[in-house]
Amino acid sequence: MEKITSFTIDHLRLLPGIYVSRKDPVGDSTVTTFDIRMTAPNREPVMNTAEVHTIEHLGATFLRNHPQWKDKVIYFGPMGCRTGFYLLLAGDLTSRDIVPLMEEMFSFMAGYTGQVPGASPKDCGNYLDMNLGMARLLSQKFLDEVLRNITDERLNYPQ
């Protein structure tokens, strides 16, 4: 069996950043999959499930309500390795195209207070596994250390 593209990336050199993971034709359109890598794989601790779950709820809610991007959002969810998230958007896009959107989203999450959207037994299958404090902290860290003044090495996979 051939390796899927995401398994061909050198995770030992991968930095936290925003990367185009793949582009797929769908009819006469393109779907761009982004790798929103929040931690350095195999070199930093992975995120715990509670904060990943909280970021998923906050991020998905933010994106699906965004006035400019909501109609392009196909999916936002965690990577199984817990080092980041995948964001699928309609359109042939680059990493640089979504930096302002990611700055907005991570600012929203870093400053969010109140009840996490969808964190109730009626709305979620594991509503108790949430950690807003850590989600806010990790969002602020990604905003400060990665998104603000982002460089090309954090927008393009290592070769």
Give an account of the 3D structure.
The protein has 159 residues and is an alpha+beta fold. Helix content is 28%, strand content 20%. Strands 1-2-4-3 form a four-stranded antiparallel β-sheet. Strand 1 and strand 2 form a beta hairpin. Helix 1 crosses helix 2 and helix 2 runs antiparallel to helix 3. The longest helix has 16 residues. The mean pLDDT is 96.
Write the layout of secondary structure elements.
Layout: E1 17-26, E2 29-37, H1 49-64, E3 73-78, E4 84-90, H2 99-111, H3 132-147
Antiparallel strand pairs: 1-2, 2-4, 3-4
Strand order of the largest sheet: 1-2-4-3
- The H-and-E topology, N to C, reads as EEHEEHH
Instruction: Tell me the structural class.
Output: alpha+beta
For the terminal residues, how far apart are their CA atoms?
A: 23 Å
Helical fraction equals 25-40%
Shape annotation: globular
Total E-strand runs: 4
Mean pLDDT: 96
Number of helices: 3
Low confidence ranges: none
Percentage of β-strand residues: 15-25%
Radius of gyration, in Å, reads 15 Å
Reported for the largest beta sheet, the result is:
4 strands, antiparallel
